[in-house]
Amino acid sequence: xxxxxxxxxxxxxxxxxxxxxxxxxxxxxxxxxxxxxxxxxxxxxxxxxxxxxxxxxxxxxxxxxxxxxxxxxxxxxxxxxxxxxxxxxxxxxxxxxxxxxxxxxxxxxxxxxxxxxxxxxxxxxxxxxxxxxxxxxxxxxxxxxxxxxxxxxxxxxxxxxxxxxxxxxxxxxxxxxxxxxxxxxxxxxxxxxxxxxxxxxxxxxxxxxxxxxxxxxxxxx
Length: 221
Ligand SMILES: Nc1ncnc2c1ncn2[C@@H]1O[C@H](COP(=O)(O)OP(=O)(O)OP(=O)(O)O)[C@@H](O)[C@H]1O
Description:
This protein is α/β, with parallel strands linked by helices. It is built from 7 helices and 10 strands. The strands form 2 sheets. A 6-stranded mixed beta sheet has the order 6-7-8-3-9-10.
């Protein structure tokens, strides 16, 4: 049973004649790690904007848990349904790792009683110990920052995790680390994890590998 579905989805920017996504059919299931690989200009950012509910497709339909994205509350979808991980981490660098998570929990309206303890446990799960959690993000390595980024993305327990070039700034070993965490979120916690990247190296972690080429999404393996 898919959690997110795309049916004949096309996208055209306002004022442009070109379709940057072309009749995409795709069903994302829980418990799987999807990698979508595409070159610059292939339509990755556009696809991410649709998956994360920032924009609506101009043709076709998208469904989240069977509900048409055109009618569902996309603010609620963004706040509760998905967690997003960015290449540049997008953390508050002058705050500690712990503060980043707690702040994000406050913004998403978390009802957790002890947010601090919850955040510390979450950080531990992604390999950030309590000492590291107390340090300013500015003083953490890229790999550590991305772990914090992952903890933030999953703090509100979304069913879907969308990662935009999550290892773009990291070396090979750290990339492996981060991809293994993402894979474990899919396999051990049943999340639907979607990684969009131009990196072929990330492809090997995929349960399903898809290629985006000039707006066409094709199954690779
Ligand atoms: N606001 C816009 N108006 C018109 N065309 C756009 C707009 N934004 C992007 N495009 C075009 O849509 C196509 C896909 O762009 P998109 O940004 O989705 O690609 P991408 O795969 O994310 O590329 P990159 O990896 O370089 O960021 C490109 O041809 C781009 O020029």
